[in-house]
Design a protein that fits this description.
Length: about 180
């Protein structure tokens, strides 16, 4: 592979290939987590919130997730371009309206693509801690940790049922003054 070639199968390389159940005593909820390169601290955090977590590979079809009878579906973080995982996008399309669906980073972007929005590659990406994000509901700035190379195109949300709740302040101001990041 030449140094300019970028693999388009990054998620398939980092996802697990079998179902793993992280059960807790007296769980309140059952969440199916689609593993696109998930960090195990996510499972620990969901468990602390009272969730039994069933981790499934990135390419698990919707009917297999439905058969697990979850109360919610989570799509994990992971590497690469969210458009490079059409199987996961198609799974989410089929699950929309059946369960609460939530995600982090790549998972968030996959949800957006499943609803018909678009994503784009950031010039430099967002890396590390202390990224200011404006909560549009409270108008307060929250400090976040981020590690991604893609973002959801806000203009592409028109015509979807998605609503913007938070915006990266740095990206917002760069757009306002029309200068590169």
């Amino acid at each position: 592979m030449e140094s300019t070639d970028i693999p388009t199968d990054a998620v398939s390389r980092v996802s697990g290939d079998k179902i793993i159940i992280s059960n807790i005593e007296d769980s309140k909820y059952h969440v199916v987590a689609i593993d696109c390169g998930m960090k195990m601290n996510i499972v620990r955090s969901l468990s602390r919130c009272g969730c039994k977590v069933t981790i499934v590979p990135w390419n698990t079809p919707a009917d297999a997730i439905v058969a697990l009878e979850p109360e919610g579906v989570f799509i994990s973080n992971g590497p690469g371009d969210p458009a490079d995982v059409p199987q996961t996008i198609e799974t989410i399309k089929k699950l929309i309206g059946k369960y609460p669906i939530f995600g982090i980073c790549l998972g968030h972007q996959i949800i957006s693509l499943a609803y018909g929005a678009k994503t784009y590659k950031l010039k430099f990406g967002h890396r590390g801690g202390n990224h200011p994000v404006r909560n549009l509901g409270t108008n307060k700035i929250e400090i976040t940790s981020q590690n991604h190379s893609y973002a959801v195109d806000m203009d592409s949300l028109a015509g979807t049922s998605l609503t913007v709740t938070h915006i990266n302040v740095r990206l917002y101001f760069a757009t306002l003054i029309r200068q590169p990041l």
